[in-house]
Amino acid sequence: MTDGGSGFRCLDCDERFEFGTATHRCPDCRGILDPTYDEETLAAFHDRLFGGRGAGDGIPDGDGGRTDAGLGRFAPVLPFDREQLVTLDEGGTSLLECHDVGDEADVDVFLKDEGRNGTGGIQDREMALAVTAARVHGASDVALPTTGNGGQAAAAYAGRAGLASHSFVPSRTTFATKAMINVHGGDMNVVGGRYPDAREAFEEVIDDEAWHSLAPFETPYRHEACKTLAYELVASLGAPPDAVVHPTGHGHGLVGLDKGFRELARTGAIDRRPRLYAAQPAGCAPLVAAWKNGEDTPQPVDHPDTICGALEIPAPAGGSLALDVLDATRESRRARRAAWASAAGTNSPNGGSSTPARPWSSSTRRRPTAKPTCSGAT
Predict the structure, then answer these.
(1) pLDDT tens across 302-333, in order?
(2) Per the count of CB atoms within 10 A, which of 109, 124, 241, 268 is most buried?
């Protein structure tokens, strides 16, 4: 484990654990575990990245070529040393300015192109850490339920680590996505129906197999890897963006982005945290509905229906955490609910959903003369 890591903190009961004493959920309450680091390590690493230089000079963002790629460049603020990491040169993806969209909205809009990762998605970051943990803990097999993209990444990184992988995938997942799981050497179990059916099939067998679970928010490492997006955005832009819009299924990306920005703010590397927005498809938007209704926990979508198959997650594993993140960076959902109810003369606002999400992460910086315009799960 990395020298600066101080262990895990349970996000539910606040109990602390050393890295070697827990592998998945909290041993005491089954809450979600989160890696922690000592303040000196965070401050020293942030100073090395940004101290005495422009914020964009600290780490490569990939725009000029994927030099020093892989999460190893963030190893001092990750649970594993660079030498331990299973990597396929993930991260360091391009940040592309979208002039036409920005001109139309009168804001500066940038797209973080996670499609440049090896298997084509942000899940490469997640699996770099999660599969590393599995290997460190002596696993021979990893397994997860997935809408497809996570299965591709798990198969690729497990193969890199010399492990076997087992993905439980709904039958409605696209042929190309399913094929790539096999191309990367993964075992695939196609389950009739949608993601909840695949999750149920996974849960029926995982306790009887000597498999290391990579299921969403079962391992502390998938959301941890996503915090590197925050570091890269600050490095590329020279400052934190005003807002980040993230296409959201289970919530790994939102929770990770928030953690990265909080770490940077805690040491003074940035002077503010961006607003975070969850973008979900109209036919499956449990977080959006919960936010608009002022709920603490998203209610499962009974009949999800969207062509955005990767985001068809009717009951997000990190739903409550994602809502907490939105609360922390924007106006409280309870305050919004009260305001809407007052304006409408009723005690309950209408539910709603966002516009369909696009398969990328984006960040916005307001132009000096721009109107106060933003977009997302509002």
Answers:
(1) 999 999 999 999 999 999 999 999 988 776 55
(2) 124
Residue 133 lies in a domain: yes
- pTM of this structure: 0.85
Q: Is the pLDDT of residue 15 over 60?
A: yes
Residue 334, in any domain of the structure: no
Contact 170, 193 (CB under 8 A): yes
Burial 15-31 (b: 16+ CB within 10 A, else e): eebebeebbbbbeeeeb
**Nearest residue to 287 via CA among 196, 237, 191, 357:** 357
Residue 223 phi, psi (nearest 5): -70, -30
pLDDT tens readout for residues 222-274: 999 999 999 999 999 999 999 999 999 999 999 999 999 999 999 999 999 99
Compute the distance between CA of residue 214 and CA of residue 228 in angstroms, rounded to an integer. Answer: 19
Looking up residue 171, the CATH number of its domain turns out to be: 3.40.50.1100
Give the number of domains in the chain. Answer: 1
- Is 46 within a domain? no
The amino acid occupying position 116 is R
**163 within domain boundaries:** yes
Q: At what angle do helices 149-161 and 123-136 cross, to 10 degrees?
A: 40
Domain carrying residue 134 = 123-213
pLDDT in tens, 119-150: 999 999 999 999 999 999 999 999 999 999 99
Is residue 136 within 8 A of residue 80, CB to CB? The reply is yes
